[in-house]
Automatic annotation (TrEMBL):
Its main location: membrane. It comes from the Bacteria. This is Amino acid permease. The chain crosses the membrane at residues 28-46, 58-80, 92-110, 130-151, 163-191, 211-232, 253-272, 304-327, 348-366, 378-396, 417-441, 447-467. It holds the Pfam family AA_permease. It is a multi-pass membrane protein. The keyword Magnesium does not apply. Residues 27-445 form the Amino acid permease/ SLC12A domain. InterPro entries: AA-permease/SLC12A_dom (IPR004841), Amino_acid_permease_CS (IPR004840). Keywords: Membrane, Transmembrane, Transmembrane helix, Transport. It is found in: Membrane.
Length: 472
């Protein structure tokens, strides 16, 4: 195997030198799973089933998994060749253009910073269902302090805390799928069924009771459910032996996610009529997980799922603060933010970037007081859109990188990890993500977020060319 030693790569690899390489494959896989398994699965999966029908939802999640896998293969190739903490921002800067790299880095930072506050608020509101006399603000401060402490302690401590938070979700999903399959086959009794329900609900009202269009209309929700897998790329700059650990983590994470997501959808669809899956009930009780556990006869089902969703929210905030602070550190290292933002402490933590990102999450806390539904929906739309744009940049970066690689007279065999089927994988990954972005236009609730994102992207490019283009 041949490792590249050209100047541009050595500069990029040096940029991650102050950050400690303390993560193993175990940490990478769980960070990726933890980023992806969240409220989108526990609460959002029922909505997709209700809109598309059971078979449509299964197709949506398989397609979403395939898109995520193509993007992660592209990311794996880039991350092994160039393991930096700026990740896809650094790749976009080098292989698309400096203005695009700057914009992508800010987009990803904003995605996480904007949702940080809502994660804490949502977790606090759930705690208040248990402890109604304690103010939401107290829980918010406790959760924010916990996530801040995990990120400030050390890379190793962050990775370890994320491993255990993610493990709670993974165990819950595995238990849900196994118990669901036992109910489907009649080993466990299930409410309102004297014999095994089997899979009759899947096609009880036809293969596509809502038509084919909702399969594509819900792709943004489904793609957002898989978002978080790209955290492997952000963490690559702080990973031991990236050439070995990153590809292994990507393959492990994507296949497990596909099994978890599709397995969950199959169980919900087999055990609940599709109209019931997306009930607009208040709070956690609207989760199809609660309904299925209740019908199987699991005691305290709502409390169990509430606890799991709280850990899911904290896990997402934990990963988000990590990812966003590394993006800010990267901008500062490239002299596109003041030097203070790239300062690291003795434990290798970019502490100024962590503190400022934490403050960037404060506006999200206002969602509890001011129009929570509107703010949540718009933040979801913005986060989903910006995530898919980041994925598009990963595909385009890998496509351009590989073309440069071939022009230098090298082959795919000279890479330590090469995405297969070039150029099919990056081209299809890019096109599917583009279609997903365009689908936002057809959703009236998502349209304001879509327009806002386009304005923000234009603002990033304009600010880059006004402030930094001449310097670079």
């Amino acid at each position: 195997m041949q490792t590249s030693h050209n100047t541009e790569d050595s500069v990029s690899q040096d940029s991650s030198a102050p950050l400690k390489r303390a993560m193993s494959t175990r940490h990478l896989v769980m960070i990726s799973l933890g980023g992806a398994i969240g409220t989108g699965l526990f609460l959002g999966s029922g909505e997709v089933i209700a809109q598309t029908g059971p078979v449509g939802a299964i197709i949506s999640y398989i397609l979403g998994g395939v898109i995520a896998y193509m993007v992660m293969l592209c990311l794996g190739e880039l991350a092994v060749h160039m393991p930096v903490s700026g990740s896809f921002g650094a790749y976009a800067r080098q292989y698309i253009g400096p203005g695009t790299g700057y914009t992508i880095t800010w987009l990803y930072w904003l995605t996480w910073a904007a949702t940080l506050g809502t994660e804490f608020t949502a977790a606090a509101l759930l705690m208040q269902e248990w402890f109604p006399h304690i103010s939401v603000w107290i829980w918010t401060i406790i959760f924010a302090a916990f996530v801040f402490a995990m990120n400030m302690s050390s890379t190793r401590w962050f990775a370890e805390s994320e491993f255990w938070l993610a493990l709670v979700k993974v165990v819950t999903v595995i238990a849900f799928i196994l118990l669901g399959l036992l109910a489907i086959t009649g080993v466990l009794s299930y409410q309102d069924y004297e014999s095994a329900p089997l899979f009759s609900n899947l096609t009880a009202q036809g293969w596509f009771p809502e038509g084919l269009f909702p399969i594509f209309a819900t792709m943004l929700i489904v793609n957002f459910a898989f978002s978080g897998t790209e955290l492997i790329g952000v963490a690559a700059g702080e990973t031991q032996d990236p050439a070995k650990n990153v590809p292994k983590a990507i393959n492990t994470a994507i296949w497990r996610l596909l099994i978890f997501f599709v397995g969950t959808i199959v169980v919900i669809s087999a055990l609940l009529p599709h109209q019931m899956a997306g009930l607009d009930a208040e709070g956690v009780s609207s989760s199809p997980f609660v309904t299925v556990f209740d019908h199987i006869g699991i005691p305290y089902a709502e409390d169990i799922i509430r606890f799991v969703i709280i850990t899911a929210l904290l896990s997402a905030a934990n990963s988000g603060l990590f990812a966003a602070s590394r993006m800010m550190w990267s901008l500062s290292y490239q002299k596109q933010l003041p030097a203070i933002f790239s300062r690291v402490n003795t434990r290798g933590i970019p502490y100024v970037a962590v503190i400022v990102t934490m403050l960037g999450g404060l506006p999200g806390l206002l969602s509890e007081k001011f129009a929570p539904e509107t703010i949540f929906k718009n933040l979801l739309g913005i986060a989903a859109f910006t995530m898919v744009v980041v994925w598009m940049s990963i595909c385009l970066s890998q496509f351009n990188f590989r073309r440069q690689w071939y022009k230098q007279g090298k082959t795919a065999k000279d890479l330590e990890f090469a995405a297969p089927l070039f150029p099919v994988v990056p081209v299809l990954g890019f096109l599917f993500c583009l279609i997903t972005c365009i689908s936002m236009v057809f959703d009236p609730e998502m349209l304001p977020g879509f327009i806002g994102c386009l304005i923000f992207i234009a603002g990033c490019y304009i600010s880059y060319y006004l402030l930094y283009h001449k310097k670079s």
